Request: fold
Amino acid sequence: MPVSDLRFKLSHPHPTSPKGRGLIAPSTDTRSLPPPVLTRAILNPMTTPPLPEQIELHRDRMWRRDEDLRVESAVDAERFIEDVGFANTLTDARRAGPSLYIAVCGRRDVSLPRHVQKDEETRLTWYLKDEVMRRGRVYYAKLAGGRSMFVAPRLISHFAAVWMPRRKDEPQSLSDAAQRVLKVLRREHELATADLRVSSGVTERAAFTRALDELQRQMKVIPQDVIYQPFSYIWIPAEDRFGEELRKPIRRKMALREIARAYLAGAGMSLLGETARASGLSRVEAGSGNHQLVDEGYAIRLRQGIYALASSKIG
Reply:
C-alpha cells in the first residue's frame, strides 16, 4: 500500500455522523466531510481503522498470534519476551501490546473468559508466569499502572531510567510504609508475604498491599517465587537479582527512545496513543521516543501520533 494511500486511510476512518451518533456509511467520500466530524472520528477509539494486513501479519509473528508460534513452555515465553522487549501477562486483544496470554492462545482475537479459573489457556498462562518468575531470566513485577509485566534483560536499565528513583532519593520518592518494607527486605533479602508484613510493621493489609505495589512500580521489589499451599509470594529486593542492570546508567531520553523502539519493532506500526498504553509511558514520553526514532530514520511518521517501521513495505 503506498504511503499516500495509507495516510489517507488513517486520516479518514469511518467517522461518526455530524450528530455524533452512528457511523457514516463506508461508501461515503470522507474527504467531503467537515474537519470537526473527522476530528471526532479520529479521536473515537470505536472508529479506529483496521490495520493494513501486512502489519497484522507482522504482529502475528512477533506477538505469537499464530497457532504454529504459540508459547507452550517457560523457554518459549522467555524467547517471546526477549523478542518483543516487554509484554503484559494476562491481557487480551482489547489492550494494546504483546501479551503472554495472547501468545499462549496463539490467535488474534483473544478475549479473557468470564470464569478464568476453568479456562485451560488462562491456567497455562499463570503456570508459565510462575515458572518464568522462578527462573529469573527476565524481569517480572507490577509496573506502571499496576499491570503485571515482563521486561527483557536488555530493557531493564531503560525501564529503571524512567521509573526507578535513585537510592539517595528514596526518602522523598517512597512513602513511609514502602520505606519500611524495603528496609526489612534489604536486611533479610527474601521473605514471604505474611512474614514481610509482620516484620515491616505495616500490618494493615490494604496499606501493606499499597506499599508493595508502590515498590514494584518503582522497581525496588520483585516476587521471585510463589508457594501455593498456603498461597504466598516470596519477595526480594530487585537489586538482588538484577543489580547489574539496575545500576547501569541510562539517560532518560535514550530510555524513552529504546522503549519506543522495542514496541514499534514488535508492532510494526503504532497508532495514536498505542505506545503509551502498551508501555505505561505518558503520551508525551512515548511521543518523545517515537520522534527520536523518526529522526534517526528507524521510523516514519504517517500522521500525528501514527508511526511505522521505515523498513516496512508500507514505507
About this structure: Residues 120-135 form the longest helix (16 residues). The chain has four domains: 3-47, 53-151, 163-247, 252-309. The first strand starts at residue 86 and ends at 88. The two ends are 9 Å apart (CA to CA).
